[in-house]
Amino acid sequence: MASDDAVRATNDDAAQCKRFAVERGYWKDPYIAYMTPRGQAKHAPEINRGYFARVSAMRALLRKFLKITNQACQVVNFGAGFDTTYWILKDEGINPKSYIEIDFDAVTSRKCHHIKRAKALLEKIASEDGEIKLSLSELHASDYHLIAANLRNLQEVEKKLEDCGIDKTLPTVFIAECVLVYIDVKSTNELLKWIKDKFKTVLFLNYEQVNMNDRFGQIMIDNLKSRDCVLSGVEDCVSLETQKQ
């Protein structure tokens, strides 16, 4: 089982890699700098290109879904970390009915702090009446919700989503960007089955490691293991076929 602290640390790594790539001009994101300080490390072009592909692919598919549903839909981002997609979509005039982000409370509390202290982030969330409910680790506004939950605890996830007023009859897109590989297969299967059974119209966008038995995959596994982060779901990432299954 991956250490939760080690998994949370991967959010910081990803955020700093994204900021580095943005500052090198791979894509535009005026909000990532509010989420994470500039890192000391310099990243190879392969890493920058990898994050460019990751961000571009996920956001392109999300935009397509939002266009098909005429924005009359919901977005649920599992393990969202310091993702800034909500703000990027706002700048593009794309406003789903509800945008919900879920992560560990240690991550969401820091994101709440970043949002609260950055006017550029807070202004996009405020509705016409300006009402925002903010606690230590959660934030609720008219169309944006940041909630703390452990994805291995399905009962907790369901309750938190209900607190956000989620509508199971509306088209809903779930996003898991490099998340499920850290969760045991049993919990992932239960989560996917719950989504399938409870929601009427669903799209699930999953960006995950694959081909983990090749040399690059083994280096990744060894590197994470040295940081007390064992990939609990790696058995389903051995090949593209196991991932599909």
From TrEMBL:
Q: Which reaction does it catalyse?
A: [phosphatase 2A protein]-C-terminal L-leucine + S-adenosyl-L-methionine = [phosphatase 2A protein]-C-terminal L-leucine methyl ester + S-adenosyl-L-homocysteine
| Entries under InterPro entries matching the protein | LCMT1, Ppm1/Ppm2/Tcmp, SAM-dependent_MTases_sf
Q: Which Pfam families match?
A: LCM
Alphabetical list of Gene3D superfamilies matching this protein: Vaccinia Virus protein VP39
Query: If you read the UniProt record, what top EC class would you report for this enzyme, in one word?
Result: transferase
The entry sums up its family as follows: Belongs to the methyltransferase superfamily. LCMT family.
- Cited function: Methylates the carboxyl group of the C-terminal leucine residue of protein phosphatase 2A catalytic subunits to form alpha-leucine ester residues.
What name does UniProt use for this protein? [phosphatase 2A protein]-leucine-carboxy methyltransferase
What species is this protein from? Tegillarca granosa
